[in-house]
Structures are given as C-alpha cells and as structure tokens.
Amino acid sequence: MDSRVLQAPTPEAVEELLGESKRRNGCLSLYTRCAVAYEGRAQSQLESGDRFVLCKPDGTVLVHGDTKQEPRNWQPPGATVQVTDTDPLVITAVRTNPREAIRITCERVYHAALLPMDDDASLELHGSEADLRDRIFETPSLIEDGFRPETREYETPAGPVDVWGYDADGRPVILELKRRRVGPDAVSQLRRYVESVDADVRGILVAPSITDRAERLLGEFDLESRQVAPPTDVGEQDRSLAAFVAGDEDERT
Amino acid sequence: MDSRVLQAPTPEAVEELLGESKRRNGCLSLYTRCAVAYEGRAQSQLESGDRFVLCKPDGTVLVHGDTKQEPRNWQPPGATVQVTDTDPLVITAVRTNPREAIRITCERVYHAALLPMDDDASLELHGSEADLRDRIFETPSLIEDGFRPETREYETPAGPVDVWGYDADGRPVILELKRRRVGPDAVSQLRRYVESVDADVRGILVAPSITDRAERLLGEFDLESRQVAPPTDVGEQDRSLAAFVAGDEDERT
DNA sequence: TCTTCCAGGTAGTAT
DNA sequence: ATACTACGTGGAAGA
C-alpha cells in the first residue's frame, strides 16, 4: 500500500507529500495547529486551533475541529491545492465558478500522512423519496381506493410534480411526496404546483407526518394529506444492525 | 501533545486507542479498508473500499472516500461509539432521537491515530443573510426612497418574516432576504408570508439575482423584487487572499 | 453551464 | 423536546 506517515514533518516535507499525493492520486491528511481564512461566496476567518485537515485528490479540502459533523471550514471539489509558503507552512486552495479561496496557515504540524485510496464501491440507499414514490405506484390504494398514478416528475410551469394521477372520479391529482415530517414549506410547494395547472386538480401532500401549522395551511388552501412513510424493509439488509436500532443493546452478533 | 500513531495496528490496539481517545477527549482517526452499514432514518450499505474514518469525542463518526466533500457515510454528534468485535474489527456507533446506527467493518487498518485537539476559536463569517439584513437597516434606500424598516423576524401565522417595514405612503412592506440567487421556492415563501397577513401589504424579494421562472411567478402574484447583495467588504480581512480570488494567480504574499 | 429539487441533509434559534 | 429557516448548504438529474 506504501502509505507514509510523518511525525512533526518540516514544511518542505509536507510540500513534498502534497506533490506525492497528487501524483499518486491519494489523499493528504494533516493533524495540525492552524488558522484558516476564506474568501469567495462569503468571507471568514478562524483563529489558530488544533484541527484535522484532509486534502482529497479531486481538490476537496476539509478542516475538521473536535466537534460537530460539519467541517469548520472547507473548499469544495475542483480546487487547486498548493503549498504557497513554507515559513510558516501555508496551504492555499483556489477554485473557480464561483471563484473562491481558502488559506490554511499551520503554526505546527503534528502528523502528515499520504493515504492512497482505492474505493469504487457504490452506496446502496433505501428509504428515499424515490422509494416512497415507487411504493405508491405499487400500492396506489395507500392514497385512496381508485387512485391511478400515471406520471412521475410531471412537468408544470411551476416545476416538476412528483406524481400526477387520477382519482376514482377521473379528477386529476397531484402528489407531493416527502420522506419525513413536513412543515409549511412543503405546503407552499404543493400549492404552487396545483395553482400552476390550468385544471380542476386535487393536491395531496404525502408524508409520514405533518406539523400543526402546515396542517392549518393545507386546510386554508383546500389541499389534502395522506400519512404514508417510505418503505423500511428492503430485503438484503443486515438484520443484526436493525436489532441494534430496535433497542437491543446487548446484541453483539 | 502526546499524540499516537499506530501502523497496521491490531483490532485490540484500535480498541485500546478508541478508549484512550474517549478518556483524553480526542479524535480517533483510521485509515482503513472497510465496509459500512447504516440503519435508522433510512438504510444503506457500502461495500468494502479504502476510506478514512474520523471519530470525534462528541460521538460524530465520518467515513470519507477519496472524492467529494461529503462523507460517504456518517453518524451525527451524540452517538455512542464502540468496538463491538475484534475479528474482524467492527466499530459501531448508536444514537437516539432518532434511533440509528452505523457499523464499520474493517478488513484491514493501515493506520490508526489518536488526535488530542484544543480548539476554542470561533468562526467569524461575513456575507450572510443577517449581514444583508443589517445592511438594509443601515441603508433603507437600497429598497426604495422613503422605506422604513421596523422589525426583524416579524412573526406571522405562516412563520417569521425577515423584515417588516413601511413604504413612503405608510403601506406595510414585507421583505424576504436571500444572500444568493433565488428560485421559485423563495417566491413561494414570500407569498406565503404576504397572504398570511391580514392587511394590504407589499411583498419584496431582496436578492443578488433571480431566475426566470421565479421572476415570472413574482409577477403572477403581484410581488416585487430588488437586486441587492450582502456586503462583501467587512474591514479586518486578509487582503492577499482577496487578491488571489480576484484572479491574481501570481500573488504569493 | 444553469435551473430545479432532494437530503439519513446539518446547524442555529426561539418556543 | 418540537418547529421553523438559513446554509459559503452539497449533490443529482435534466435542459
């Protein structure tokens, strides 16, 4: 695998490692005390602190602190990453469209590592809005008896509608699907679609649950709702994890 | 700093290091070939590949591949992270509200490292929607002559309005502010606020720019727009980064 | 490229 | 805890 880890590397060694990571198409990881500045879509400054920095071969740069899921600062994919100074070590990542730059000034580097990565696996995800849509096409009675779904992503002047269909009386129906509990924004969205259609159409918001305010707004605009959730079980899943989630803390299989 | 890096550690050594990271309130980093399973709000599976794993002391777990800004899989803050098996090494992170779990099965661990972090610096960000709001309170004529902004986050039955004020004729005005180019969703949002108010009120969408469809929707609902961007210059900024962004590629100061 | 919308969105704030 | 919105949202799919 020929990865490399350097303890307390010099700025020159980090520069060398960054070049190597580009040639090898690998990631560069830094454990460092650094300050960060950003300018582009907005501007930000982050004073010195201990952080973990990951530079990916696609130009992504992440600066992680010791809390939270989101990086404290970052550069999206597509940036050009360079060591622009070695005393102290400064790493700059610039990208265009939009034009923006991040600058990491390292007062100390505890470790640096080269991480060649081979990862071509694709994520299989179940329980998305698309799965909910498929579920409704499979079992239209989840909406109501006699409902006939017809078109996915039906185009209207106000944007694409999730599901277009007809009720038992042949009256057109628009469904707006959400995979989780919905608020007022989803009602606005459904209303926009319904009003953009030049016909007498019913609008139904399909979601696992709905907030009080959204419910009230629905009524105000003569829209409806159905309580339906995305399918949870999709076959080939690892059952022992499900047991964990179900609350069986002692599960260790 | 007493950080520790282990090359090709045994599962037991990783377990020990995870325990140590909890006691020391530090992060644990793994460079590993692993498979990932998730179950909770949805379900997902990710087959084996080389990845970088970061476990933070607040319970956050990130699994990064070699591309993209977002982790390939993750667990948000608040999870309990444990080694639940050592042959092969399995790391499980469980959290509640919502109840969900991620499981990382490592077929090889290239490195593991303990990263004690001291980071109490706060991010200073300029150019947000709040800054745009402040700018309008400071220079109301950016909207129009005679405009008098009055209330921020003004409460309506449909939700909080960014700015409530009055025009030169004393007619109430609602502003919906966006820090970037807006689409149909922002128009829907403004419309919802305007209609929820039981008065003859003007609605103005304030943003740097607007899409065609959104523009058309605005007209349809008798709403207005003003082209205003958040302030870009906020004083104490590092000017050399701005030069970089401006296109001066040779800037190395 | 631009537009549009989903996301296991995440984060912050007020109730 | 829930509700609501902003985010340097990011990412994908279609035009």
Number of helices of chain A: 5
- Round the Cα radius of gyration of chain A to an integer and report it: 26 Å
Largest sheet of chain A: 8 strands, antiparallel
Helix percentage of chain A: 10-25%
Order of helices and strands of chain A: EHEEEEEEEEHEEEHEHEH
Structural class of chain A: alpha+beta
Distance between the termini of chain A: 31 Å
Q: What general outline of chain A do the C-alpha atoms trace?
A: elongated
Please give the number of β-strands of chain A.
Answer: 14
The largest chain-to-chain contact, stated as pair and per-chain residue counts, equals: A-B, 96 and 96 residues
Unreliable stretches of chain A: 249-253
Mean pLDDT of chain A: 93
Beta-strand residue percentage of chain A: 35-45%
Layout: helices, strands, pairs:
The structure is a homodimer of 253-residue chains.
Chain A: E1 4-7, H1 11-24, E2 27-39, E3 43-55, E4 61-64, E5 73-75, E6 80-86, E7 89-95, E8 100-115, E9 123-126, H2 129-138, E10 148-156, E11 159-166, E12 172-177, H3 184-196, E13 202-207, H4 212-220, E14 224-227, H5 239-246
Parallel strand pairs in A: 12-13, 13-14
Antiparallel strand pairs in A: 1-8, 2-3, 2-8, 3-4, 4-5, 6-7, 7-8, 10-11, 11-12
Helix pairs in contact in A: 3-4
Chain A binds a DNA duplex (15 and 15 nucleotides) through helix 3.
